[in-house]
């Protein structure tokens, strides 16, 4: 098998949207302080971005693994067959396999082939953190509340075999995208376990109260990476207007998720923005309405074991050489 590994160069550098960049400069220089200058440099330099390669356990990947290792990629996570002494402390082993490279090398994407499973999924490796924090176990009932385009749903199925994974997406075009992603990575034998729904996520907590063991809310957000490179001034201005309305929607979705999880179950809330208004402020606002829910500390479980790769607490801030993120995550457990 021959696969061309692509090293990013600056030849096709995208230009940032001035309005969005000005807005980010004002907000993030205040919120992040000295961290913003280095994060800004990374976000403005797409050729420096690193990519993870998540392998598909339902497909033969031996050849891909060999190619990755020969090119200097290494495994991000400890595997289920690793020796206990080799595992980072308090970091649970996983069947999920993701390979990362210290430099911005990129595997080519695989085209959708009806009837054939893809071998790997390209992603910002920080997007796996919410799935790891969810701690899905075999037999769990799991809701991916805002599921499209489907990368995190695929990662959940790489991690465990839940009794049910409900992938919810109300937008019809994004739902088609989600369905195609699932078809590309999951065998038909899992159809009884994985379903796609089209509910308004704000009301799932009413219709399915207390039904799920785990709920992921990868909320619609002002995606800093893509919004910064909005194609024109008008679109950039529209996105800034949308940005102001997002916290209300995010709050409604998180409320719904906490209502949908059983006592003792967990909700993971995540975004791919640095904005505190869409991150900590949303979690804090929602918890005021749920005295039976509390935020769990992810420092020893996730932050310390993966500090080699990510600059993070519960917020992954892109930095030179560790260009993953932005990614915010918070795990909330409903008390028994």
TrEMBL record:
InterPro entries: MeTrfase_RsmB-F_NOP2_cat, MeTrfase_RsmB-F_NOP2_dom, RCMT, SAM-dependent_MTases_sf. Pfam families: Methyltr_RsmB-F. Transmembrane segments: none annotated. One of its GO terms (cellular component) is mitochondrial large ribosomal subunit. Gene3D superfamilies: 6.20.240.40, Vaccinia Virus protein VP39. One of its GO terms (molecular function) is RNA methyltransferase activity. GO terms for biological process: rRNA methylation. Keywords: Methyltransferase, RNA-binding, S-adenosyl-L-methionine, Transferase. The active site is at 272 (nucleophile). Residues 43-335 form the SAM-dependent MTase RsmB/NOP-type domain. S-adenosyl-L-methionine binds at residues 146-152, 169, 200, 218. PANTHER family: NCL1 YEAST -RELATED NOL1/NOP2/FMU SUN DOMAIN-CONTAINING (PTHR22808), TRNA (CYTOSINE(34)-C(5))-METHYLTRANSFERASE, MITOCHONDRIAL (PTHR22808:SF8). Belongs to the class I-like SAM-binding methyltransferase superfamily. RsmB/NOP family. This is NOP2/Sun RNA methyltransferase 3. It comes from Xiphophorus maculatus.
């Amino acid at each position: 098998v021959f696969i061309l590994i692509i090293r990013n160069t600056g030849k096709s550098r995208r230009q940032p949207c001035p309005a969005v960049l000005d807005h980010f400069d004002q907000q993030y220089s205040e919120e992040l302080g000295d961290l913003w200058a280095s994060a800004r440099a990374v976000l403005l330099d797409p050729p420096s971005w690193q990519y993870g390669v998540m392998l598909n356990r339902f497909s033969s990947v031996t050849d891909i693994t060999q190619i990755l290792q020969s090119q200097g990629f290494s495994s991000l996570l400890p595997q289920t067959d690793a020796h206990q002494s080799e595992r980072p402390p308090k970091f649970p082993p996983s069947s999920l396999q993701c390979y990362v490279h210290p430099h911005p090398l990129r595997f080519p994407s695989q085209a959708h082939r009806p009837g054939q499973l893809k071998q790997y999924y390209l992603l910002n490796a920080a997007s796996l953190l919410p799935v790891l924090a969810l701690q899905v176990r075999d037999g769990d009932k799991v809701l991916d509340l805002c599921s499209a385009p489907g990368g995190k749903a695929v990662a959940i199925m790489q991690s465990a075999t839940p009794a049910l994974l409900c992938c919810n997406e109300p937008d019809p075009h994004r739902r088609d995208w989600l369905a195609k992603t699932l078809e590309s990575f999951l065998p038909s034998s899992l159809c009884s376990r994985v379903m796609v729904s089209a509910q308004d996520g704000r009301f799932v907590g009413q219709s399915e109260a207390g039904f799920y063991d785990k709920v992921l809310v990868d909320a619609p957000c002002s995606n800093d990476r893509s919004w910064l490179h909005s194609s024109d001034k008008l679109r950039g201005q529209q996105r800034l207007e949308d940005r102001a309305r997002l916290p209300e929607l995010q709050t409604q979705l998180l409320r719904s998720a906490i209502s949908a999880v059983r006592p003792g179950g967990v909700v993971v809330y995540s975004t791919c923005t640095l904005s505190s208004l869409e991150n900590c402020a949303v979690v804090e606002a929602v918890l005021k309405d749920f005295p039976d829910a509390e935020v769990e500390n992810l420092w020893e479980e996730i932050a310390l074991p993966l500090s080699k790769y990510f600059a993070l607490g519960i917020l992954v801030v892109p930095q030179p050489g560790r260009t993953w993120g932005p990614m915010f995550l918070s795990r909330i457990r409903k008390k028994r």
